[in-house]
TrEMBL record:
Subunit structure: Homodimer.
Pathway stated in the Swiss-Prot or TrEMBL entry: Carbohydrate metabolism; galactose metabolism
Record InterPro entries: NAD(P)-bd_dom (IPR016040), NAD(P)-bd_dom_sf (IPR036291), UDP_G4E (IPR005886)
Organism listed in the record: Cellulophaga algicola (strain DSM 14237 / IC166 / ACAM 630)
Protein name, entry field: UDP-glucose 4-epimerase
Transmembrane segments: none
GO aspect biological process, one term: galactose metabolic process
UniProt KW rRNA processing keyword: no
Domain NAD(P)-binding: 4-327
Length: 338
């Protein structure tokens, strides 16, 4: 069965391609290489022994998208990762984000709507909840006004899929709302490769541990949490990748209850920034150089998932602990810098 993975050479995409191939799916990757490298294919081959098909296509080029689906009429499912994801950059360049994240989604859906049957998995984010009133966050928590154009593209993306599914019964879709993905494949063949200075906590920590960065800035210790630092739900990228395969199988086997569904993907456990640092120090045996600095604009106090819907409906559960995920992130960082 042929599955298209857009952004399949990126961080979460590449881990998902591995899990798909491990399950026997035939994978074809589209990636524009704007934030990834063709070398990731070697890592995928090293793990799975199989090279996925790869086409370098910019999904903003509508005619290329149309042409792709003509040439690959046998694609039965699409997992759509390709998108821009830097919150700060999205504030600076909103139109780039709307074009990249919304334009491309529309072109893909237009093609899928032409098919007799199509399954679509969308990369969404817990950012759609903003600061939720109740923890852990359930899928029916209200969607709040987005803090950034990036966040808005995830909300709008979900709405566009909802509206499309209402009128295209042959299309079945699932939006997966990720909490905070981290870590790397245990083989250290693939992992996260942020370009430039990492914006996210875990790659910043591992790069500081390697001496690439002098010091981690902890953004605020005056939040109403156990130690004053923000709480997030850090999920191992391999667990996250496996959830995509389970979600896709749910659609392919017509086990979905509605033709558009939403699931949280998290562990259900919240960790503070200082707990994440402690985990790094534990698995690496190194002291991390960090200092407390003022809060970062736009950060919410806490976000962790209620995982019951994913556990019960998808039959999926995150298995790795924070320490295991951190160890994989650290092993990967050491390998990349070796
Ligand atoms: C951020 C985005 C979120 C997006 C996700 C994608 C914001 C407000 N949210 O999530 O919309 O889906 O990235 O990856 O930007 N921290 C530090 N020092 C650092 C970096 C982070 O203390 O150098 C803290 C942050 O304050 C936060 C936690 O670490 O409490 C996690 O931060 P981060 O990895 O950036 O993820 P989110 O902010 O949760």
């Amino acid at each position: 069965m042929k599955i298209l993975v857009t952004g399949g050479l990126g961080f979460i995409g590449s881990h998902t391609v591995v899990e798909l191939q491990n399950k026997g799916f035939e994978v074809i990757i589209i990636d524009d290489l704007s934030n990834s490298s063709e070398k990731v294919l070697d890592g995928i081959v090293a793990i799975t022994g199989k090279k996925p098909l790869f086409e370098k296509i910019d999904l903003k080029e509508k005619s290329k998208v149309e042409d792709f689906f003509k040439r690959h009429a046998d694609v039965q499912g699409v997992i759509h990762f390709a998108a821009s994801k830097a919150v700060g950059e999205s504030v600076e360049k909103p139109l780039l984000y709307y074009e990249n994240n919304i334009g491309t989604l529309v072109y893909l859906l237009k093609e899928l709507a032409k098919k007799d049957k199509a399954s679509f998995i969308f990369s969404s984010s817990c950012t759609v909840y903003g600061q939720a009133d109740k923890m852990p966050i359930t899928e029916d928590a209200p969607v709040k006004t987005a803090e950034s154009p990036y966040g808005n593209t995830k909300q709008m993306g979900e709405e566009i899929i909802t509206d499309t599914c209402k009128v295209v019964p042959s299309l079945n879709a699932i939006a997966l709302r990720y909490f905070n993905p981290m870590g790397a494949h245990p083989s250290t063949e693939i992992g996260e490769l942020p370009i430039g200075v990492p914006q996210n906590l875990v790659p910043f920590i591992t790069q500081t541990g390697m001496g690439l960065r002098d010091q981690l800035s902890v953004f605020g210790d005056d939040y109403p949490t156990s130690d004053g630092t923000c709480v997030r739900d850090y999920i191992h990228v391999v667990d996250l990748a496996k959830a995509h395969v389970v979600a896709l199988e749910r659609l392919l086997e017509a086990k979905n209850k509605e033709n558009y569904e939403v699931f949280n993907l998290g562990t259900g456990t919240g960790s503070t920034v200082l707990e994440v640092i402690k985990s790094f120090e534990k698995v690496s045996g190194k002291k991390l150089n960090y200092k407390i600095v003022p809060r970062r604009t736009g950060d919410i106090t806490e976000a962790y998932a209620n995982t019951e819907k994913a556990n019960n409906e998808l039959g999926w559960k995150a298995e790795s602990t924070l320490d295991e995920a951190m160890k994989s992130a650290w092993d990967w960082e050491q390998k990349v810098r070796a």
